[in-house]
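Collaborator request, handled under Task 6.
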Amino acid sequence: MKNMNRPSHLPRWVAVATALIFCSNAVSSLHAQRPGGRRGAPTVDEPFVGIVTSQGPQKGLFKIESTGVSTEPVRIAAEAFLAGLTDQQRERTVFPVDDTEWRKWDNRHSPKRQGVGFDEMTEVQRTLAFEMLQQSLSAKGLKKTKDIMKLNGTLGELAKRPQEYNEWLYWITVMGTPSKTEPWGWQLDGHHVVINYFVLGDQVVMSPVFMGSEPVEAKQGKFAGTIVMQDEHDKGLNLIQKLTDDQRSEAIIMNRKDGNNNLTEAYKDNVKLDYAGLIGSKLDDSQKQALLQLIEEYVGNMREGHAKVRMTEVEKHLDETYFAWIGGTTDESVYYYRVHSPVILIEFDHQRRVAPFRTSEPTRDHIHTVVRTPNGNDYGKDVLRQHYESHSH
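Structure tokens returned to the collaborator:
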């Protein structure tokens, strides 16, 4: 593949926020989007650092504290789900809470998955699995998850490869033992939807979360009428269109979009990523509201109480939250955007089509989104570290 965007004198991982770096990373990550294997992508054996800027991790952002929002329903549903598995299924579904299994998720369809698959579950087991998701997610988040699974079925119909893409090719693992006081969590892993859900007491960290789809709408077949990712699409566009010309010139890193631009998908736990685009302190009140509504669209996939806790954390850092854009800004454009603060990272990307046919240009029919907790708290790892430290004395 010809890399037309990155000049030869620029190293691949220079952490400067320029259009060229965006391009180079987009092109370098391109190979990772193709089905058929991991191509040496896994970096799970590297010590976990998290998404950090070139200044290194920002300390003291996360602490163990009571949120006042109960996680009991999640624990009870997880215990019921595990009790509903056979001994053999349970054995391959449960991992230690600090296992590298957390980091082995992959939004692509091809890697071998761990845990128990919906494709092998009985109806009763599926009901218990969805109950665990329902207690963890908002109604909107649960519907979005199920709709992405359905659209994977639509992709199987379009590609005529149901053994490769279908609504039940999703797996659940549980890390640790569901508990009121000890850390534990669960992971949903599969094509175009990955959710990592960490629990300690009544605290929840839900990241990394990957959501996307190809196609984003079922126009025919078993799931006709199913459509996803439109609010993420529209609220990002609404924000860029609300900016003044001067603000827009800061936010837009590149006005053409040639390829895939997401930087923090599977196996990208330790990416160095500097802030880029327009800083939140330069937004007026109505623009700040639009930014908060955009972030809430992603955070709001969690149950309402925990989403509110998370949004309070986000709001504390709103003035140091950056909004960056690649691509056009019309209602027909394809684009990438990024929201990046010390405590949250969101990426949205219109991608090239992969199946049932490939396109060389990005399209609105294939969307990838990622939500991360920078500075070491993806998978709740910073909170888990503090928990271990406080219990080691």
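The cover message to the collaborator said: "DSSP finds ten helices and 13 strands in the chain. Residues 1 and 361 are 13 Å apart (CA to CA). Please let us know whether this matches your experimental observations."
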